[in-house]
Amino acid sequence: MTAAAPIDVASIRADLPALSVQVHDDQQVVYLDAAASAPRPTPVIEAAAAFDREYPANVHRATHQMAAQATAAFEAARADVARFINAANPHDVVFTKGTTESINLFASSWGGANLGAGDEVLITALEHHANIVPWQLLAARTGCVLKVIDCDDEGNIDTATALSMLGDTTKLLSLTWVSNAIGTVVDLHPLITAAKARGVTTLIDAAQAVPHLPVDVRELGADAIAFSGHKMYGPTGVGVLWARGDLLADMPPWQGGGEMIRTVSFAESTWNDPPWRFEAGTPNISGVIGTSAAVRWLESIGMDAIAAHDAAMTDELVTRLTSIDRVQLVGTPQHRSGAASFNVEGMHHADCGMLLDRHGVAVRTGHHCAEPIMHRLGVSGTVRASIGCFTTSDDLDAFETALRRVIEVFG
Ligand code: PMP
């Protein structure tokens, strides 16, 4: 494989107006919080605004021109997202309001129909709450059991340990691809292959993978993946659940209302086909249209090139953090993407984040909606710096300088 040409970070940054914002009156923002939400490119903002300005009609229901235009744009967005993840059929792409809703949909619908008392759902110690709590809710409903593949002290998921936990009662493997809290990239391939061989269904939380790595659902081999638009430079309030068509076809509705039905009478209702069966009510139309613009923006840069850039920036982030006295990395996984978590000896993570903010550096602090991995690694929270395709060495230099200053002044 030939290496992807480097990305043009200057032109990427020119597309991202949020990067020019001054915080605290006169500080140029250094945005190191892409893992929480990536900044929106102008074409994304424009595509969503054009819908609101020029054809703000509801989808699927009306016969007039504006509604037809809205419907065409909404369904074209589905095709864009399908192409982006190399899905064979756009109808296997369900729009939700985020990764959280995608996983809840899958748990409620597929889980409710397929998991009974004693059936096991296997997750990892790295999971975001969005891939923990829906299974706990389902366990309370059905008696299924949540099991956790532990990580090592560095935050790696050992493949052999994970494989040893696949048992006769395992029905679902629901795994994060990339940890939002400490950046670990899980080696999914052997786990998905082994699950498949045993007839275990696989769901991947790809929220932190999609902005950094090329995602090809055919190559991945999982049965379903979930991700969020706002972490891949799209608007907030849009998510995707992609699942194998035959799986979706057998899944019952999870919410009732308009659009998800074929017929309704007071006696009974019948269901629409996927994906609409799972999209009850008016969707986030402008957000979905913005998401398709985000897909096209990412494609115009190239995901292979983004992956190479983001890997280099992640390495540089870790190298810089490791060079600072009193900084302790939390999680030192072998494979990492996009984020690094740390604490400064003697300083609370919230104080560190607040002081960095005074230097214009935007990072996230706390447990990152992943309390179990914080406890596993013996901390109550961390400071997390996360990068994207817009991040430069200058950003990381400003971050390092600010962090050194914070440590010096704090004492
Ligand atoms: N999973 C992971 C790995 C995440 O990073 C996030 C967002 N931090 C989520 C799930 C939830 O995504 P959302 O809030 O967009 O639903």
Question: Mind explaining what this structure looks like?
Answer:
This protein is of the alpha/beta class and 411 residues long. The chain has 2 domains: 9-31 and 302-410, Aspartate Aminotransferase, domain 1 (Alpha-Beta Complex); 45-300, 3-Layer(aba) Sandwich (Aspartate Aminotransferase, domain 2), CATH 3.40.640.10. The protein has 14 helices and 17 strands. It has helices at residues 9-14, 42-54, 65-84, 99-114, 133-142, 159-164, 188-197, 217-220, 245-250, 285-301, 303-322, 349-358, 371-376, 393-410; strands at residues 22-23, 27-28, 30-31, 93-96, 120-124, 145-149, 170-176, 201-205, 224-228, 239-243, 261-264, 269-271, 327-329, 339-344, 361-362, 364-366, 382-386. A 7-stranded mixed sheet has the order 4-10-9-8-7-5-6, sandwiched between helices. The chain has a 4-stranded antiparallel sheet with strand order 13-14-17-16, with helices on one face. Strands 1-2 form a two-stranded antiparallel sheet. Helix 8 links the parallel strand 8 (201-205) and strand 9. Helix 3 crosses helix 10 (285-301) and helix 4 runs parallel beside helix 5 (133-142). The longest helix has 20 residues, at 65-84. The radius of gyration is 22 Å and the shape is globular. It starts with 8 loop residues before the first helix and ends with a helix. The mean pLDDT is 97.
